[in-house]
Every structure is written in C-alpha cells, then in structure tokens.
From TrEMBL:
Catalyzes the complex heterocyclic radical-mediated conversion of 6-carboxy-5,6,7,8-tetrahydropterin (CPH4) to 7-carboxy-7-deazaguanine (CDG), a step common to the biosynthetic pathways of all 7-deazapurine-containing compounds. Binds 1 [4Fe-4S] cluster. The cluster is coordinated with 3 cysteines and an exchangeable S-adenosyl-L-methionine. Binds 1 S-adenosyl-L-methionine per subunit. Residues 18-218 form the Radical SAM core domain. This is 7-carboxy-7-deazaguanine synthase. PROSITE patterns: RADICAL_SAM (PS51918). It catalyses: 6-carboxy-5,6,7,8-tetrahydropterin + H(+) = 7-carboxy-7-carbaguanine + NH4(+). HAMAP family: QueE. It comes from Saccharospirillum salsuginis. Pathway: Purine metabolism; 7-cyano-7-deazaguanine biosynthesis.
Length: 218
C-alpha cells in the first residue's frame, strides 16, 4: 500500500500529556471529517481544523510505496545518538485511514515509540504506544480506550460528558483556537476561560493549550 504524507518535521509535541517532548511529526494527507477545502468547511463534520492536510507537497512530504520507505524517512528526521527515546507522532489529516501495524513494527525495531493523534472514528493498529483521542462534533467515536482524551472545547455537539465512559489515563480540554494565520494568546480567548472553569468544576479534566503556537514553533 502507498502512504500519502503531507509533511514531516521534527519539533516539540505542543499538546497534552507529552507536551514538550521532542517528536518527529508525520502528517498523513486526507481526512474523513473534512475535505480540507475552505468552501466545504462550514458544512463539514469537523469545521474548526487548523491544519492543511491536502496533498503531499509539504516539507518532507510525498508518496511512500512501502512501510520500509516511510520508516526510513521518519528515522532520518531523528537526531540519532543524541540521547532520549526516539518518538514519532502520526497525525494528519486522519492517520487512522493509513496507519499500519507493519509501519509501527518497523519503527519499533529501530527503537521508536509510536504515538497517534486521532479523531477516533477509525480502528487503529493495536501496537501503538500512545493514543491521543480527540473527538469531533457529531461524529461517531468507535474507540473505547486511549491514553489521553484531548477534547477541543467548547464543541456544542461534543460536550465532555459524552465521553465519560471512554477509558482514558488523562482527560484534557484543549481550548478551541482560531484557524488560519491568526494566533491569539490563550489567555485572551473565551474558549480558554470556559475550559478553565469546566476543569475547576470537574477535576477529572485538565487544561492543555497548543503550546507550539505560543512559542511559535511548527
Ligand atoms: C489537525 S488534528 C489531526 C489528527 C486527527 N484528525 C484529530 O483530529 O485528532 C491534530 C490535533 O489538532 C487539534 N486541533 C485542530 N484544530 C484545532 C483548533 N482550531 N483548536 C485547537 N485544537 C485543534 C485536534 O483536535 C487534534 O488534537
Ligand atoms: N508542535 C506541535 N504539536 C502538535 N501536537 C499535535 C499536533 C497536530 O497537528 O497533530 C501538533 C503540531 O502540529 N505541532
Ligand atoms: S478530524 Fe482532525 S484532521 Fe480532520 S478536519 Fe478535524 S481536526 Fe482536522
Ligand atoms: Mg497541529
């Protein structure tokens, strides 16, 4: 099978329980909840996406014919011999549409831990090391367990209570950020205030913010 990758880059994980961790990001092209075209945004199941995942034309992107080819490109992004456990975050687009057990096995053999950011509508390979589940709008979530639940907040069709039965080590609210070029400091946003108030009233939830946008890294 061919893997379509929009872009690949080495940066710090900006969100959730692994925030601050050096990570290779592998962004797959395509999503089942939005076409990625602005003219379809308003009618999409997921209408607030902050990411361009259309095509394979980004830095480090392309079509990879085999799991071995894609694994090699990921391994080449990591500073081998400099310490730490190599870590890759599969994202997108929706990585559940393309991710395979074979790709993860290949990366495990090279010493990598493998994480995913998913909207939870697709079955995932069982050999992942870290699953971040981020439900979207009215879409049906089929995953019943994850390492972290990271819910963009507020979402009228996806209130936190809807996910009380999901088995998760951590539950995060991530304040909804504007998409496009605009970056507003979290402290100035109503979504941040609302998320803080929800966490204080429901202490099984924690706040996470998109730290990479605050410090202006990829
Ligand atoms: C672009 S998505 C790709 C992975 C997967 N499709 C998903 O939705 O989880 C990566 C992460 O960015 C988050 N995200 C996307 N748009 C956002 C926004 N406008 N504000 C805050 N987080 C956002 C998603 O919730 C998800 O956790
Ligand atoms: N630094 C950084 N951290 C991230 N965590 C999740 C991201 C994503 O787009 O999946 C992301 C991203 O795009 N950049
Ligand atoms: S599910 Fe993820 S990739 Fe798809 S449109 Fe929503 S945030 Fe973007
Ligand atoms: Mg992002």
């Amino acid at each position: 099978m061919t893997y379509s990758v929009k872009e690949m880059f080495y940066t710090l994980q900006g969100e959730g329980a692994q925030a601050g961790r050096p990570s290779v990001f592998c962004r797959f092209a395509g999503c089942n909840l939005w076409s990625g075209r602005e003219e379809d945004r308003a009618s999409a199941v997921c209408s607030f996406c902050d990411t361009d995942f259309v095509g394979t034309d980004g830095p480090g992107g392309g079509k990879f014919k085999t799991a071995a080819d894609l694994a090699s490109a990921i391994i080449a992004q990591w500073p081998m011999g400099a310490g730490g456990t190599p870590y890759v975050v599969f994202t997108g687009g929706e990585p559940g549409l393309q991710l395979t057990e074979e790709l993860i096995d290949t990366l495990h053999r090279a010493g990598f831990e493998c994480a995913v950011e998913t909207n939870g509508t697709q079955q995932l390979p069982s050999n992942l090391d870290w699953v971040c589940l981020s439900p979207k709008g009215a879409s049906e979530v089929i995953l019943t367990r994850c390492d972290e639940l990271k819910l963009v907040f507020p979402q009228p069709e996806a209130p936190p209570e809807r996910f009380n039965t999901v088995n998760a080590r951590y539950r995060f609210l991530s304040p909804l950020n504007p998409w496009g070029e605009e970056v507003i400091l979290p402290a100035r946003q109503d979504s941040t205030r609302a998320a803080i108030e929800y966490c204080l009233a429901h202490p099984d939830w924690r706040l996470t913010i998109q730290m990479h946008k605050v410090v202006n890294i990829a």
